[in-house]
Amino acid sequence: MSVELKTCPFCGSGGKMVHPMGQWTSKGYGQDGSRISCTSTECYVMTTAYYGETQDADAITAWNTRAYEPDQAKIAELQAEVERLKSTIAELEKR
Ligand SMILES: [Zn+2]
Fold first, then answer.
1. Which of 38, 36, 39, 67 lies closest to 50 in space, CA to CA?
2. Distance, CA 7 to ligand 1 centroid (Å)?
């Protein structure tokens, strides 16, 4: 599978595809599903189980979906501004 999984949104560990078996679903009992689970042994985050022809892709999409995607360019810009202001303050304090 070539699709990259994002890190766990709660602990930052990786994610892995798992195939829960023998679960009750709306379609009955025993159908193998797909879900993505956090790889940390101390974090129990996982997607719901998906079933059907696109179950792997559906689980990956669910795992990789974030309510909020940080704007890394804006964060870098603001960090640079903070550093510039710190340096300006340091210069002012020398006077
Ligand atoms: Zn986690």
1. 36
2. 8
